[in-house]
Structures are given as structure tokens and as C-alpha cells.
């Protein structure tokens, strides 16, 4: 069973994804801010879903720290955010994310498909 770390400050979205992922046989670890997300990344999840607008530590800073550490640099990261700017997308891709998704543009099933593809 794959483990997914979801770094997201919206509790309702956390719950929605927990229900969806657990129904599909995944285990989900939750983090409600960037600092907590970095700590929980040490548990070596199989994939990280990362929001960019986070309390305590912005998502780009989280991503930079994840990619700088030997134990977390190879974990696939999917950005799931409301930031739609071309510069943000470009920056994230240059930093090594697997996929960049804008929340309002994707249904839950589509996000699940992106997760499955990233884990293959």
C-alpha cells in the first residue's frame, strides 16, 4: 500500500482526500502547515501532495527543502494549489515537481489518476 503525504491547510480538503485515497487503498498522512509537512516527509511517503499557500512555511520553501535532502529528494511531488500563474508553474517544474495541478481545474478522480500515474 502506497503512503501519500498531503500538505494542505484546508481541513475539509484533507478529509475529502483522506476518504478518497483510503477508499482506493492508499494510506494518507496529513500535515496542516509547511513545517509539519517537512517533519512528516521524514516518514518517507511514496508521494507528496503539496499546496503552495501554507502557514508557517510557503510551499516553494517546503519543496526546496524536500529536494535538498537526500532522504526526500526522490519522492514524487504533485503541486495541488490555487496559484495559476505561469511563473509559479514554471518555477515548480524547474524545482522537480512531477505534476502541477490547479485545484479549480480538476475533479477528484482526475487528481487520483495523476497520483496513480506518478506512483507507477
How many whole angstroms does the radius of gyration measure?
A: 13 Å
Q: Strand count, sense and closure of the main sheet?
A: 5 strands, parallel
Number of helices: 5
Q: Level of helix content? A: 40-55%
Can you tell me the residue ranges where pLDDT is under 50 for at least 5 consecutive residues? Answer: none
Structural class: alpha/beta
What is the H/E string? EHEHEHEHEH
Q: What form results from the Cα inertia axes?
A: globular
Beta-strand content bin: 15-25%
Describe this structure in words.
With 120 residues, this protein is of the alpha/beta class. It contains five helices and five strands, in the order βαβαβαβαβα. It has a five-stranded parallel beta sheet with strand order 2-1-3-4-5, sandwiched between helices. Helix 2 runs parallel beside helix 3. The protein is globular. It starts with a strand and ends with a helix. 28% of the residues are buried. The mean pLDDT is 93.
Give short descriptive properties of this protein.
120 residues; alpha/beta; five-stranded parallel β-sheet; 5 helices; 5 strands; 43% helix; globular
Q: How would you sum up this structure in a few lines?
A:
This protein is of the alpha/beta class and 120 residues long. It contains five helices and five strands; from the N terminus they run E-H-E-H-E-H-E-H-E-H.
What secondary-structure arrangement, pairings included, does this model have?
Elements: E1 3-7, H1 11-23, E2 27-31, H2 34-41, E3 47-50, H3 59-68, E4 77-81, H4 86-94, E5 99-102, H5 108-119
Parallel strand pairs: 1-2, 1-3, 3-4, 4-5
Amino acid at each position: 500500500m502506497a503512503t501519500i503525504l498531503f500538505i494542505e491547510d484546508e481541513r475539509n480538503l484533507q478529509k475529502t482526500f483522506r476518504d478518497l485515497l483510503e477508499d482506493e487503498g492508499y494510506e494518507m498522512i496529513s500535515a496542516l502547515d509547511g513545517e509539519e509537512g517537512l517533519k512528516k516527509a521524514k516518514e518517507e511517503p511514496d508521494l507528496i501532495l503539496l499546496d503552495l499557500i501554507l502557514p508557517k512555511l510557503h510551499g516553494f520553501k517546503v519543496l526546496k527543502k524536500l529536494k535538498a535532502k537526500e532522504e526526500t529528494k526522490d519522492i514524487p511531488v504533485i503541486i495541488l494549489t490555487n496559484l495559476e500563474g505561469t511563473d509559479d508553474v514554471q518555477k515548480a517544474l524547474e524545482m522537480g515537481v512531477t505534476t502541477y495541478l490547479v485545484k479549480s481545474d480538476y475533479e477528484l478522480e482526475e487528481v487520483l489518476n495523476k497520483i496513480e500515474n506518478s506512483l507507477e
